[in-house]
Amino acid sequence: MSLFQRLDEIKNRTAAPERPAPAGEPAAPFRETWVPPGGREENSPFGKYILLEDSEPGGFPFPGGGREAVLADLKLVRGVGPVNEARLRKLGFSSVCDLTDHPRWGDCARRVMELADGCDVRGLRGLGAGDWDLLSYFGPEDVVFLDIETTGLWASQPLFLIGLLFKSGDGMAVRQFFARHYREEKAVLAAANEVIQRFKVIVSYNGKRFDIQYIYGRSVAHRLFYSYPHHHVDLLYHARRKFGGVLPDCRLATLEERLLNFRREGDIPGHLIPQTYHRYVRQRDPEIIRPVIEHNRLDLLAMARLFGIAGHGGPGIGEKRSVK
Fold first, then answer.
1. 209 in a structural domain
2. Which domain holds residue 117?
3. The dihedral of CA 279, 290, 211, 217: what is its sign?
4. Pairing of strands 201-204, 231-234
5. How many domains does the chain have?
6. What is d(CA 16, CA 187) in angstroms, rounded to the nearest whole number?
């Protein structure tokens, strides 16, 4: 058979039927109207998706200190490293403010003061100000916690769930945007993006390398081109620096167990989530996906409860701590 004949055969080949369900897992009619408890079907210009809404009592700890907390880091002054900082502190310089009249460091110190007075978070971050210290320029109402569930490790594969948690009144609101099928992904991305853009700070766990990059990649795939210039606090970095040599690992579930004395019962392992979603789409049984939705919700709550502990200045192993 010639190459052209083979191409002709491929062109005229009928589409393969949908893969049958594995034995013991009979397929059920797909219920487009299925809505999990606490959720509702939403229509948007980009299609349908499921919005799940929940609330939790209490809040999350938030650092104080304001502008003074940032200016206490003398290393923000260009040329001042750990050695010079130690020397300056011995001489009585405890804040960048104290260096504005210094013959050597005065010019740079005044530049830092300008950035601090102008609330230029991006400029201060460029000078090396820490994520945690820069939170002093925001409030709890500016923060959104973010966690996603995907069908793989690369943005070439769809995501299907974006979970958000944020302050609401005296408690915390949980919003989960869920795609019942791959074709609902674009609507999920658009709806979640609209909420994320209301906030100034994103808190995640490995979100700088994974969640945000994944959302961006999937938005490009759908020609949405979303961007997230928010101040981003990735709790994984803080947890590794603080507990890397103490805990067996820095997985979110490990921090929950060791720091909050909370152990998840029946939680689905993360590595099983992609195949579970594929099975849900194929078998069309809502019971298959419920553990994944709950896993995402628990991840959001874990981040909120660990926020002050994993971050700079939180208590270490064995120290007193309070969880709201």
1. yes
2. 66-136
3. positive
4. parallel
5. 2
6. 27
